[in-house]
Amino acid sequence: MRRVPFNDLSRALTSQRDALLAKAATVVDSGWLIHGPHHRAFEEEFAAYLGVERALGVASGTDALELAIRAAHSRSPGNVVLCAANAGGYASAAARAAGCLPRYVDVLPDTHCLDPRAVARALDDDVIAVVVTHLYGRAAQVADIMAECRAAGIAVIEDCAQSVGARDAHGATGSTGDLGVFSFYPTKNLGALGDGGAVVGRDGELMATVALLRQYGWEGKYRMAVTGGRNSRLDELQAAFLSFRLPLVDAGNHRRREIIARYGGAAGPRIRVLPAPDESHAGHLAVVVVDDARDLATHLGDRGIGTDVHYPIPDDMQPGHPGDPQGDLPVTHGLVGRILSLPCFVELTDSEIDQVCDALAEY
Ligand SMILES: *Cc1c(COP(=O)(O)O)cnc(C)c1O
Questions:
Q1: pLDDT tens-place string over residues 141-187
Q2: Backbone phi and psi for residue 362, each to the nearest 5 degrees, phi listed first
């Protein structure tokens, strides 16, 4: 039986080998390793791609979240960050690192993204920011959340780690909130050959603060203008690789949506494939909802198919955070044990997709 891996990064690395090595050679020949011409070029290309004024390269997606939250924290006295509890724990880790506390809000049953009405109910004077995660690659309802938060001066931070390239009627994800944060972790739709991230945004004041915070709080060399600065930089090598891969994102997202549509067409009545019908979904993950995800994982595993769960444990149930507020999260908690992610990456072959479809149809 052929194995269908959940993901296989070596396929893109093999097919892009010559181009990536050529990029690496350019960096070596330039003599610049940090904050040089490749970094500057990528920041400009990425901002233009998203339709935002400015993009700032940082060391990872989690750093991007932390710096965005720190910037919001620097202008507001509160310390609470609203976020979903089903989005991998990145926002709550970043909130804590920024000296804040997460407060969990429930998600919508059809999209698994934040419920704008639940956000509105959870707002109070302690809230400084809302992190809206575009989970699985699907554009969440940022405009509704912005409408609630703008008047109160609460920052809306879009977590676009899974949604690069997704765009709806309001624009690209990352361009519709106050700040957008991205991860270039190798498995993301725009992946580096190591860690990387970015903060983008229209809010010039918040972006100016992030620009200081990513390098010690320096406004000029060795002069710290703000407190809470970090060392979080995207290096020249990663920026050069990302410049090569950025133009490939749209075609890759299209292919991912095609894969999800094929799963949706093949799955039997016991499996609900969350749809990725158009550009408002980046197709990052092919997630299905079933009564018993472990049973489906075994069925697929017996047929050689790799799966994963994004994510198995809600933030408020994590053993490392025993003091977390237990939110009122019926939808989030109701999905535990019922979600499963199927193979979904650009280099998946048609016969591998067929193998997954056959196994889904059989279940
Ligand atoms: C991957 C991911 C992150 C974290 O990015 P890193 O670069 O690994 O720090 C944050 N949020 C979401 C939704 C992610 O999927």
A1: 999 999 999 989 999 999 999 999 999 999 999 999 999 999 999 99
A2: -75, -25
C-alpha–C-alpha distance, residues 80 and 104, integer Å = 10
Q: Output phi, psi for 235, to 5 deg.
A: -85, 165
- Overall pTM surpassing 0.85 (yes/no): yes
Which H or E run contains 56?
A: strand 54-58
Atom of ligand 1 minimally distant from the CA of 188: 1
Place of tokens 């993009």: 55
Tell me the CA–centroid distance for residue 110 and ligand 1, in Å: 22
Distance, CA of 17 to CA of 313 (rounded, Å): 37
Tens digits of per-residue pLDDT, 198-227? 999 988 999 999 999 999 999 989 999 999
Nearest in space to 117 (alpha carbons), one of 144, 86, 77, 139: 144
Helices 37-50 and 236-245, axial angle in degrees (round to 10): 40
Q: Which residue has a Cα nearest atom 5 of ligand 1?
A: 61
Q: Cβ of 176: how many Cβ atoms within 10 Å? A: 24
Q: Parallel, antiparallel, or unpaired for β 155-159 and 179-183? A: parallel
How many Å lie between the centroid of ligand 1 and the Cα of residue 361? 32
**Separation of 22 CA from ligand 1 center, angstroms?**
28
Ligand 1: nearest atom to the Cα of 135: 13
